[in-house]
Design brief:
By secondary structure, the protein is of the alpha+beta class. The chain has 7 helices and 9 strands; from the N terminus they run H-H-H-H-E-H-E-E-E-E-E-E-E-H-E-H.
């Protein structure tokens, strides 16, 4: 850990405290006075909280240091931190407080058995090995993109292109109706012989192909539907 970590974290100036405009909801009772005399009748504490000064700490170096020590024993990491942090100093004590917010050493809280914080810490100490780990509760599962069917290209609700037995066709889709007596040119059977599950699996909805037309090479090349060699 860098010896000047405390200076790096608190080197940013505080932000806020600039008077941009007087809030109309917090005007003093002497609103009949000229505006330049309002400040003399106002309380020492400002009536608006968003203009107060706030800390502007740069905690990224501390987070990067913890990420570089993933897999190391927490006792060794904590000893290295304590060599450069003196908790008798108010500034360096504040760094230690942020360290305790980032790292959870309680195994019950780390496992989620006890909830003592309103947020999940970013790092935890493995109760079995004592190593510094990333909190798995903070890891969001990546949503895998839906797999596209290479043999199907949907144009609209009434038209799609299908590759059937290695040949590309243009299918005209129609909705089902009561007592539908027709032939499905996609599944190549009568509509009455096709179950709803089979139709849902093939089309993704309850429709049938009323007509089918084979695409020529120019149409396949234009639509980039040619199969890979």
């Amino acid at each position: 850990m860098r010896s000047d970590m405390s200076k790096i974290i608190v080197e940013r100036p505080r932000f806020g405290g600039r008077l941009t405009s007087f809030p109309p909801r917090h005007r003093p009772d002497c609103a009949r006075l000229p505006m330049e005399d309002w400040i003399s009748r106002q309380s020492i504490r400002r009536a608006w909280a968003h203009d107060r000064k706030h800390l502007n700490e740069n905690l990224a170096p501390l987070r990067r240091f913890l990420q570089s020590r993933l897999g190391h024993q927490w006792d060794d990491v904590y000893s290295e931190i304590c060599q450069h942090i003196n908790r008798d100093s108010a500034v360096q004590l504040h760094i230690w407080q942020h360290l305790m917010e980032y790292v959870c050493t309680d195994p019950y809280v780390a496992l989620g058995l006890v909830n003592r914080r309103w947020f999940a810490p970013e790092f935890i100490v493995d109760s079995k090995t004592g190593a510094l780990r990333v909190n798995p509760r903070r890891l969001r599962p990546r949503r895998s993109a839906p797999k596209e069917n290479p043999d199907r290209v949907s144009v609209n609700d009434q038209q799609e292109y299908r590759r059937i037995n290695g040949v590309w066709y243009e299918l005209e889709l129609c909705r089902l109706w009561n007592s539908c007596v027709a032939y499905d040119y996609g599944i190549m059977r009568s509509v009455a012989e096709i179950s709803d599950d089979e139709r849902q699996k093939f089309y993704g909805r309850q429709v049938f192909a009323s007509s089918k037309r084979q695409l020529n090479k120019k149409e396949i090349r234009r639509l980039r539907l040619a199969p890979k060699p």
